[in-house]
Structure formats: C-alpha cells, structure tokens
Amino acid sequence: QSALTQPASVSGSPGQSITISCTGTSSDVGGYNYVSWYQQHPGKDPKLMIYDVSNRPSGVSNRFSGSKSGNTASLTISGLQAEDEADYYCSSYRSSRIGVFGTGTKVTVL
Amino acid sequence: QITLKESGPTLVKPTQTLTLTCTFSGFSLSSTGVGVGWIRQAPGKALEWLALIYWNDDKSYSPSLKSRLTITKDTSKNQVVLTMTNMDPVDTATYYCAHTGRHCSSANCYTDWGQGTLVTVSS
Fold this sequence. Notes:
The complex is a heterodimer.
Chain A: E1 9-12, E2 18-23, E3 35-40, E4 47-50, E5 64-69, E6 72-77, E7 86-94, E8 98-101, E9 105-109
Parallel strand pairs in A: 1-9
Antiparallel strand pairs in A: 2-6, 3-4, 3-7, 5-6, 7-8, 7-9
Chain B: E1 3-7, E2 11-12, E3 18-25, E4 35-41, E5 47-54, E6 59-61, E7 69-74, E8 79-84, E9 93-100, E10 112-113, E11 117-121
Parallel strand pairs in B: 2-11
Antiparallel strand pairs in B: 1-3, 3-8, 4-5, 4-9, 5-6, 7-8, 9-10, 9-11
C-alpha cells in the first residue's frame, strides 16, 4: 500500500504563507473528494485540520485552507505563526473504504 | 466530550499476537455513519492506516496487513478491539485508535484520537 507523496520539509518566516503538496493517484486523491490534513506536534496525537479537501472543523483557524487539482492536494497555511511548527500529514480515501496517509512534512517557522 | 483510550501490552515477543483495546466515550458505535479506526506510527516515521470498523459492522483493512489484522466491536462496552498476529520488530510503533463520523465519515477522516499506546516488539 503506497503512501501519498509529500515534501519532507517546508519552511517559512512568521507572517508568510506556505503550501504543502500531497500527490497521489486517480485511485485515491484524484478519484475522491475525501482528502484530510492532520497537524501533529512532537509527542502528541494528530489533529484534524482539513477534511473533504477544503473544509475546516470547528475551532481550526481560517489561516489553514485546502484545495485539490487532479491527483495533487494542497494545504496552505497563511500568516505563519510559531505554533504552526509541526509535522503535517495528508490522508485520502482509497477504494474499498481504505484510508492512506502521506509521507509527512515537517514545517519549520524560521 | 469525545474521548478514546488505547490499552494493551507495551511489550510483545516476535511471532506473538497483539491485542489492543480502544475504549471510548461521548459517541455511540451504533449511530449511523460512525466508525473507529486504528492507525500506527513507528518511531520517527509517518502515520500508517491499519483498519476501520463502522456502526453497521462493515470492516476494512490495509491491503498489506490484511492477513494479520482483525477488528471487532462491542457496542455495549463502547470498545473496539484490534488483533495483529505474527508480530515482528518492524511492528514496533505507537498505535492510535480514532473516531470518524462527527464532521465526516470516510476512512481517512478522524476528528478525535486517543493518546496512543507504544508497543515494542522484542525478544
């Protein structure tokens, strides 16, 4: 079961915007509007930030936004803050009610 | 308030069977659209999706681990159990259970997570 592909690391200065990509195939990212994004701080459990490509759960800052084009989904963090420094994982639905996660991206706030 | 907590052995020997229990509160696994999944994370590695069970007893498994995994639920006890056979040192990981069905109910969408339990496989 191959994972979705994410860049290993992305960095930005406070206040800047960064975008994390998540590349899959037509059997997962490209085939369904079921992409989620998770934030994970060291030693903590993951937190859902975006679901169904672009929806934010209640309580998640509107600085976080999601989109998708073809087989690639993206998470954009606007107005980067120190507290955004964490690992981020995308996840997609794959046929037959299976889930798949991405390889993970470490976000560093410079 | 929704909570989930994983329990089980912290150390298992190679070839043994691992049994993990997820005990939850704040939702019912008999409600339409609700599911509980298991996800693991090896030290310093990415999240890996393992299995999912829905309110209607539909189950799905990671294709690469399907032969080793079994997921069951006990709705009356608010518990979901995951068993993994033939454990190997590469299965050393933190195992999380998580809830789907609050904002979304697809296999990849989990709004609430347990704290995770570290399972080490070693002789």
